[in-house]
């Protein structure tokens, strides 16, 4: 009888194990939890906990909120109650108070540090062992670090040296920029001796550069060159050869003494080396044959002509091309330091006054009248190659 009873108990236990085994291997999704080993329920969101579990698998139960400043849950969960908020221990100070979704954040007070996973803050060291110096200050997670003084001194010395070199280079660049600016702007071209002068500085400059009877040095030099007539490639006006230039004396200085301004002196020296006098040659007849579709190319060549004409001859060329002195002076006053912009605006003014075709013809006639034959041929050859003009020799 006892044997039969034992066998019955064993069979019952095996049957129960078979019945319960499916619950032991039950698995739920990432956002679900196992309810008492029977079925899966959806988790409650952060800031809440499970007040009542779901009855039907894979559904939500009843979630209850945590209490602000008392407990919290930072993530979706299946907790029956919220987690209690931490209190900052001795030596710590609160950085962020506890909310229903985050725990209290604490850190060590100044002068203390707490290594990872520490239970309490430790006072920072205040001095290094003999023969060493601080290389890193104490912070919230690390004590003060010490090291040999030689390494630190070498590093500090290197940093100081680099900083000094950088400062010197910057100062040098700034000073160079200032000197360059003063040399090639108002102070470089001309500056009035009277800083309190009531007249604009360009008027003072014009007076200082004026020759006898108030005539400008520019006009004097042009008149002298025109009186001298054609010159050879190796001889400049006034029987000045290239040895005079090598000795530092330009043709303008020989003609006018010290009345030539630095800008005119530099530009006219390069221009005077170019044999541009045409002798007895006749000027060709220029006919503009450009269509409307060619006007863009025509306009580009016309405006780029300023790069072909030596700077010294420019104002006189503009006068010969049809610009009034008032137009020229106004453009110079509006752009006192921008030489290229002055020339560009003079060409635009000439174009607005006569139209692009007539402005081009007047410019070419002015270049011929100035005896700049190389410049004339360069422009007309380019215009012919683009189909803008045709040339016929005058009879």
Characterization of this structure:
This protein is α+β, with helices and mostly antiparallel strands. Among the domains are: 2-84, Ribbon (Tumor Necrosis Factor Receptor, subunit A, domain 2); 276-395, Orthogonal Bundle (Death Domain, Fas), CATH 1.10.533. The chain contains 14 helices and 17 strands. The chain has helices at residues 2-24, 149-184, 186-189, 201-208, 217-228, 242-246, 251-256, 262-272, 295-304, 314-321, 325-334, 339-354, 356-369, 373-385; strands at residues 32-35, 39-42, 48-52, 59-60, 62-65, 71-72, 83-84, 92-96, 105-108, 112-113, 122-123, 133-136, 145-147, 235-236, 240-241, 284-288, 389-393. Strands 1-2-4 form a three-stranded mixed beta sheet, with no helix packed on it. Strands 3-5 form a two-stranded antiparallel sheet. Strands 6-7 form a two-stranded antiparallel sheet. A hairpin with an 8-residue loop joins strand 8 and strand 9 (105-108). Helix 11 (325-334) crosses helix 12 (339-354) and helix 12 (339-354) packs across helix 13 (356-369). The model is unreliable at 18-23, 186-198, 208-212, 214-223 and 225-278 (pLDDT under 50).
Helix and strand layout, with pairings?
Blueprint lengths: L1 H23 L7 E4 L3 E4 L5 E5 L6 E2 L1 E4 L5 E2 L10 E2 L7 E5 L8 E4 L3 E2 L8 E2 L9 E4 L8 E3 L1 H36 L1 H4 L11 H8 L8 H12 L6 E2 L3 E2 H5 L4 H6 L5 H11 L11 E5 L6 H10 L9 H8 L3 H10 L4 H16 L1 H14 L3 H13 L3 E5 L2
Parallel strand pairs: 2-4
Antiparallel strand pairs: 1-2, 3-5, 6-7, 8-9, 10-11, 12-13, 14-15, 16-17
Helix pairs in contact: 10-13, 11-12, 12-13
């Amino acid at each position: 009888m006892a044997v039969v009873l034992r066998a019955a108990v064993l069979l019952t236990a095996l049957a129960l194990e078979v019945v319960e085994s499916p619950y032991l291997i039950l698995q739920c999704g990432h956002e679900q939890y196992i309810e008492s080993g029977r079925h899966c329920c959806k988790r409650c969101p952060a800031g809440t906990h499970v007040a009542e579990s779901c009855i039907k698998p894979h559904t939500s139960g009843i979630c209850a909120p945590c209490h602000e400043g008392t407990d919290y849950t930072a993530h979706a969960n299946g907790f029956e109650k919220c987690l209690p908020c931490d209190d900052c221990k001795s030596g710590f100070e609160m950085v962020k108070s506890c909310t229903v979704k985050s725990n209290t954040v604490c850190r060590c007070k100044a002068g203390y540090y707490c290594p990872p996973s520490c239970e309490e803050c430790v006072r920072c060291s205040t001095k290094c062992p003999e023969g060493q110096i601080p290389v890193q200050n104490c912070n919230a997670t690390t004590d003060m670090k010490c090291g040999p003084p030689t390494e630190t001194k070498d590093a500090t010395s290197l940093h100081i040296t680099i900083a000094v070199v950088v400062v010197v280079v910057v100062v040098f660049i700034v000073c160079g920029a200032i000197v360059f600016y003063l040399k090639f702007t108002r102070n470089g071209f001309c500056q009035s001796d009277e800083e309190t002068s009531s007249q604009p500085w360009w008027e003072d400059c014009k007076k200082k550069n004026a020759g006898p009877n108030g005539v400008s040095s520019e006009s004097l030099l042009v008149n002298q060159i025109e009186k001298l007539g054609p010159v050879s490639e190796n001889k400049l006006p006034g029987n000045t050869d290239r040895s005079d230039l090598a000795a530092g004396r330009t043709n303008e200085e020989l003609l006018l003494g010290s009345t030539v301004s630095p800008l005119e002196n530099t530009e006219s020296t390069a221009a005077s080396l170019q044999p541009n006098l045409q002798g007895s040659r006749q000027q060709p007849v220029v006919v503009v044959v450009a269509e409307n579709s060619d006007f863009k190319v025509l306009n580009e060549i016309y405006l780029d002509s300023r790069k072909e004409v030596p700077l010294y001859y420019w104002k006189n060329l503009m006068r010969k091309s049809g610009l009034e002195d008032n137009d020229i002076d106004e453009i110079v006053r509006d752009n006192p330091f921008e030489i290229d912009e002055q020339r560009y605006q003079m060409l635009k003014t000439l174009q607005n006054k006569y139209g692009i075709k007539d402005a081009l013809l007047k410019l070419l006639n002015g270049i011929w009248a100035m005896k700049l034959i190389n410049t004339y041929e360069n422009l007309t050859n380019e215009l012919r190659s683009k189909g803008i003009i045709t040339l016929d020799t005058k009879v």
